[in-house]
Amino acid sequence: MTGQLRRAGFEMTAIEPDLDGFTIASQTYHEVQFHNLGVYDDTSHLGTFDAVISSEVIEHLYDPMALLRLAKQHLSQNGVLIVTCPYYGYAKNLLLSLTNRWDDHHQPARVGGHIKLWSHPTMNNFLEANDFKVETLSGAGRFWPLWASLVVVAKKR
Fold first, then answer.
1. How far is 53 from 38, CA to CA, in rounded Å?
2. What tens-digit pLDDT sequence spans the chain (157 residues)?
3. Which residue from 88, 97, 128, 143 could staple onto 117, CB 3.0 to 4.6 Å apart?
């Protein structure tokens, strides 16, 4: 995504906490400034931006507030936060259970994986309760109520 946005003409600064991921991204996208940092690190030296984009990250965070703290710190006055994550609404969760795919879908023995599950209401409530105004909240991939991902655009208050 970072490379595509840069090719579209946007100036990009990116953080990647995984050293291997950081190395690959830095070598692949020379025109993007990458930093080997994550949401739990001190990023204060990076400055402010018109947008903070978090793609498929928040569901892996033990402390999702860390992402919001980072966004608040780096967003300009009218900046936007864009978050994507896997969608887990009631109907999708029920379908996974009824088809006996829940355990396979969230294999607890797998290293990494999703530790937080987000639905439309949980994401909206989380952002609104933490000084963000949700501008749009929609889904992507497949169809509602079985969206693959949740896509949110919010502004800090």
1. 13
2. 888 898 899 999 999 999 999 999 999 998 899 999 999 999 999 999 999 999 999 999 999 999 999 999 999 999 999 999 999 999 988 988 899 888 877 777 777 778 899 999 999 999 999 999 999 999 999 888 889 999 999 999 9
3. 88
